[in-house]
Amino acid sequence: MAEIEQKLDFSGLEDKSLAALVEELHKAGAHFGYSRSRRHPSVKNYVFGSKNRMDIIDLEPMAKSLKAALEFVGRLGAEGKQILFVGNKKEAQDAVKAGAEKLNMPWVALRWMGGTLTNAPEIRKRVARMEDLIAKKAVGGLDMYTKKERLLLDREVAKLQKHFGGVVSMKRAPAAVVVVDSRNEETAIAEAKMANIPVISLSGTDNNIAGINFPIVANDSSRASISLFINKIVEAYKDGIKNAPKPVAPVAAAKAPEVK
């Protein structure tokens, strides 16, 4: 027990930026894992020990993993690339939607629809149908239908918005997918792999992190931990935009002197 508490003392880290990140993660309770019986073998190297049969995640490698992911996100921001945010569990829905909207990015925070990344034409067809109905309703284009028909169309729009409202801006495959709870989002991760899209994942100790490009093994069931993770992604992307190299204005060619 004393060893665990000693390991959670982050004041001795030489890298001050890493130490500050470790402190934030600690305050958010990101180091709390699930019970030892639920631990997936792939996260073994991220677990420092157990307390009352609950896994305690090592904060230093957690912070290093998050820092590497944030550097990647910063590069995406500098290049203006699109990120898809995914988190359908109840604890993640609000943070995922809010974070994505801060960057005007697509999101899925209710239910992953199969084919979102691997069957883009069908998904765009559904989105186009939704946008068409909304546009027609706005100008009275649905007034020609009976009351019952309009009710059915309203229900269709509501259903389409529920499942596809967050991916309207996703006109092409994203440059990366940010996931909360890789165990819960196995289908999304499988589709990302098929489409060769890098995955950044907040993964609890019961998650299989094998094959994930940027796994951050941390508490994926706490709203505080999830919000910190998403907010860090948002900040890194915005920093990438700010630090992007400015385009150099073309130098006008010198005018040749006239020959008299």
Plain-language structure description:
With 260 residues, this protein is of the alpha/beta class. It folds into two domains: 2-116 and 173-242, Rossmann fold; 120-166, Helix Hairpins (Orthogonal Bundle), CATH 1.10.287. 45% of the residues lie in helices and 13% in strands. It contains eight helices and eight strands, in the order ααβββαβαβααβαββα. It has helices spanning 2-7, 16-27, 59-79, 90-102, 120-138, 147-164, 186-194, 223-242, and strands at 32-35, 47-51, 54-57, 83-86, 107-108, 176-180, 199-203, 214-217. The strands form two sheets. It has a five-stranded parallel sheet with strand order 5-4-6-7-8, with helices on both faces. Strands 1-3-2 form a three-stranded antiparallel sheet, with no helix packed on it. β4 (83-86), α4 (90-102) and β5 form a beta-alpha-beta unit. α2 packs across α3, α4 packs parallel to α8 (223-242) and α5 packs across α6. The longest helix has 21 residues, at 59-79.
Summarize the structure.
This protein is α/β, with parallel strands linked by helices and 260 residues long.
Q: Strands of the largest sheet, in order across it?
A: 5-4-6-7-8
Give me the strand/helix succession. Answer: HHEEEHEHEHHEHEEH
Total helix count? Answer: 8
Tell me the span between the first and last alpha carbons: 93 Å
Estimate what percentage of residues fall within beta strands. Answer: 5-15%
Could you say which structural class the secondary elements and strand pairing correspond to? alpha/beta
